[in-house]
Design brief:
five-stranded mixed β-sheet; 6 helices; binds zinc ion; elongated
């Protein structure tokens, strides 16, 4: 048998490479492989997974789909509700089977906190606000997060540390009134002594698989997930 000429070998390699590239592209483009944003029970973006994995979690009842319904309005759906929502609001690309036509989720909300890998709770603005339930710890009023500050109980320039035990959620008027004083010096009383929360969320989020427009509400909140420091 005569040896294969070098040019033919090269051409074959090119063809094989082209086929691989095409197959890879086809796999990457498959809607079931598209990334889905994963939120924890506190609606914090924690990870991404494939639409395939999201559908499994949805079907098993471990997650709900979060549907963006304009502005900052979101609805959540279990499997049956998502199927009905898909029928009422079809998209060009749907997951089709003999008996089912359902939309691909873009965001899911995990239902069970304790099924997640645990990690040390990050000391973040978001988590301080979660701990204090968006409530000013001085006047006991609940506010929108944009109207809340982080207050150092013992002020920083008097040696107060930025720790779970020394920061609380505070409204801007209370924060201004307290100023550079201890609560009792300002005749203010804390709702409760600040402490590290008992709950623990999980993995750090990365967005290696790209992002979807509908994620912006949650990814913009990455600001809240920045670790606090001195
Ligand atoms: Zn207040």
């Amino acid at each position: 048998m005569s040896p294969i000429p070098p040019l033919t070998i090269f051409a074959r390699r090119c063809y094989v490479r082209a086929c691989h590239a095409r197959i890879t592209l086809m796999i990457m483009e498959h809607p079931l492989d598209q990334p889905v944003l994963v939120l924890n029970r506190l609606w914090q973006a924690i990870n991404t997974c494939s639409a395939r994995r999201a559908m499994t979690l949805l079907y098993q009842g471990h997650a709900q789909v979060v549907a963006n319904q304009g502005a900052s309005h979101f609805s959540t759906h279990d499997f049956v509700s998502w199927r009905d929502f898909s029928l009422a609001n079809p998209e060009p690309r749907m997951l089709q089977s003999v008996s089912l036509s359902i939309r691909f989720p873009r965001i899911i909300l995990l239902c069970f906190f304790d099924r997640l890998p645990k990690k040390d709770l990050k000391f973040t603005r978001q988590n301080v606000f979660e701990r204090d339930k968006n409530t000013c710890q001085y006047c006991a009023t609940r506010f929108d997060r944009s109207s809340l500050n982080i207050d150092h109980v013992l002020p920083r320039d008097r040696g107060g540390q930025t720790t779970w035990e020394n920061v609380v959620c505070s409204c801007i008027p209370c924060n201004s009134h307290k100023g550079n004083r201890l609560p009792h010096e300002a005749r203010m009383k804390l709702l409760k002594k600040p402490a590290r929360p008992k709950w623990r969320p999980f993995v750090n989020i990365t967005f290696a698989g790209g992002t979807d427009n509908s994620w912006s509400h949650f990814i913009d909140l990455a600001y809240w997930n920045v670790e606090l420091g001195e």
